[in-house]
Amino acid sequence: MIVEDWAEIRRLHRSEEIPIKAIVRKLGVSRNAVRRALAADAPRRRVVPERPVGEFRPSPAAEGVHRGKRLRTSFARDGRRHAGASDGR
User: Fold this and answer.
1) What's the CA gap between 29 and 22, in Å, rounded?
2) CA Rg, the chain, in Å?
3) Using CB atoms within 10 A of its CB, is residue 59 exposed (0-12), middle (13-18) or buried (19+)?
4) Domain locations in the chain?
C-alpha cells in the first residue's frame, strides 16, 4: 500500500466517519488492509535488501557456452531443420 492510500483510508475513517466496509468498496483494497492502515501509526515501509557488490561475471548462457559446448543459435546454421520450416531456397 502506498502512502497516499494509507492517508486516504485514515482520513475517510477518522474525519468523514466512513465505515471500513465502505472504504473497502471505494478504494478496492482488502478489509484487512484497511484495518492495518487504521491500526498503524505510520505507513509500512518496504525494506529492500542490499545487494552484495562484487565483480561482474556474465552468465555462461550469455557467453554462448553451456556445459562446455557452444549453444546453437539456429537450426539452419548446422544444416538441421525443424518440422514446417522452409529451407529458404
Assistant:
1) 11
2) 28
3) exposed
4) 3-39
Question: Which residues have C-beta within 8 Å of that of residue 66, sequence separation ≥ 6?
Answer: 60
At 25, the pLDDT band (50, 70, 90 cuts) reads: very high
> Is 29 within 8 Å of 1 (Cβ atoms)?
yes
Give me the residues paired with residue 66 across strands.
69
Per-position b or e across 66-77, b if 16+ CB within 10 A of its CB: eeeeeeeeeeee
List, for residues 42-61, the tens digit of each pLDDT value.
Answer: 887 778 788 777 777 766 66
- The answer to whether the pTM exceeds 0.70 is no
CA distance to 61, 62, 64, 89, per residue, from 75 (Å): 18, 19, 15, 15
